Structure formats: structure tokens, C-alpha cells
From TrEMBL:
Keywords: DNA-binding, Transcription, Transcription regulation. Residues 8-107 form the HTH hxlR-type domain. Pfam families: HxlR (PF01638). InterPro entries: HTH_HxlR (IPR002577), WH-like_DNA-bd_sf (IPR036388), WH_DNA-bd_sf (IPR036390). This is Winged helix-turn-helix transcriptional regulator. It comes from Paenibacillus xanthanilyticus. The keyword Transcription regulation applies. Signal peptide: none annotated. The keyword Metal-binding does not apply.
């Protein structure tokens, strides 16, 4: 396989799951319970309504998230992870574990530097 082809595959993957809020949205939906729009807003207090809408639409277009509209007044809309979206679970879990380890590493480095400065 060519390097250009490999690079393209990484780009496609990252475009699907990367964005400031996409991994966090996916994390909450991967908990298994369908969530309404305002429930997601409460879970992500710093996200704007526009950005949440945009990311949910992108994830829906990728068939990672499913949107269900219930015919009632006022309309009820729920978002859930699709079976296909569930395949992202090990990837996101690995990213989470790496993030935890990276934060710990940075903290140890900071503590070591502070200790060196006080000596």
C-alpha cells in the first residue's frame, strides 16, 4: 500500500471523529442511553448550540450517531450511538488511556522540574 493511500485513510478516520467536541459527544453516547439535545448541552456546558448541532449532524451523516424524532408536540428528538458507531469504542478508549498517561507524564515532568529548581 502506498504512503499516500495510508495517509488518506488516517485523514478520513480523523475527519470522522476529531473536533473539539466530537470525542466527548461520542463518549456520552457510548454510555448506551439515548440523549436528548438539551441533555447533551447540560453534559457539555461550554459548547454552543450551533456547534453541538453541527457536530451531531456530521456524526449522523457518517452514520455514527442516529437521530430519532418522535411525532409529538413539542417534538422530541433523541440521539444515540449506532451499531457502526459502537466500533469506535476501543479507539476512543485507547485515546482516553493515552490521554490519562500523558497528563500523568506531564505532571511528573513538571514536579521534577520544580524539584530541580528548588535544589
Amino acid at each position: 500500500m502506498s504512503k499516500k493511500s495510508d495517509q488518506c485513510q488516517f485523514v478520513v478516520t480523523l475527519d470522522s471523529i476529531v473536533g473539539k467536541w466530537k470525542p466527548i459527544i461520542l463518549y456520552h453516547l457510548l454510555q448506551g442511553k439515548p440523549l436528548r439535545f438539551n441533555e447533551l448541552r447540560r453534559l457539555l456546558p461550554d459548547i454552543t448550540q450551533r456547534m453541538l448541532t453541527l457536530y451531531l449532524r456530521e456524526l449522523e451523516e457518517e452514520e455514527i450517531v442516529k437521530r430519532v424524532i418522535y411525532p409529538q408536540i413539542p417534538p422530541k428528538v433523541e440521539y444515540s450511538i449506532t451499531e457502526y458507531g459502537m466500533s469506535l469504542s476501543p479507539i476512543l478508549e485507547t485515546l482516553h488511556q493515552w490521554g490519562v498517561a500523558h497528563i500523568e507524564r506531564k505532571q511528573r515532568k513538571k514536579e521534577k522540574n520544580e524539584q530541580t529548581e528548588t535544589d
